[in-house]
Amino acid sequence: MALTYKQKFNKKYGFEKNKAHSLKEIAKLTGYKLSNIRKIFQKGKGAFFSAGPSRPNMTPSSWAYGRVYASVSKGSKSAKIDKDLLN
Asked: How many Å apart are CA 32 and CA 10, to the nearest integer?
C-alpha cells in the first residue's frame, strides 16, 4: 500500500507513521516560513470548497493539511503549484 504524504513526511523526520503535526511544527521541521505554510493551508481549504471532497469523511482542514504535507514533500501536483511559497 502506498504511503500518504503525511506518512512520507513522518518517515523522513523520524515520527510514528500517523502522527499529526501543527502548521508551526511543520514549518520548524522543514525550514519554510510559517506564513507560507499557512497560505498553502488556506489554499487547501479553498480547494476543498471549490472541488468538493473526493473521499468520504474529508473536512476542509484535513484536505488543507493534505495539501501542506504534499507541498513540503515536493512530490505532488500541489507541490508544483505552491512552489513559489516554498522558496
From this structure: 16
In a 10 Å sphere around its CB, with 0-12 CB exposed, 13-18 middle and 19+ buried, how is residue 66 labelled? Answer: buried
Q: What is the pLDDT of residues 29-82, one digit of tens each?
A: 999 999 999 999 999 999 888 876 667 788 899 989 998 998 888 766 656 778
Does residue 10 register a pLDDT over 90? Answer: yes
Nearest to 20 by CA among 85, 69, 55: 69
Residue written as grid cell 514549518: 27
Give the pTM: 0.87
Q: Where are the domains of the chain?
A: 22-86
| Rg of the chain (C-alpha set) | 12
The per-residue b/e assignment along 15-24, b for 16 or more CB within 10 angstroms, e otherwise, is: beeeeebebe
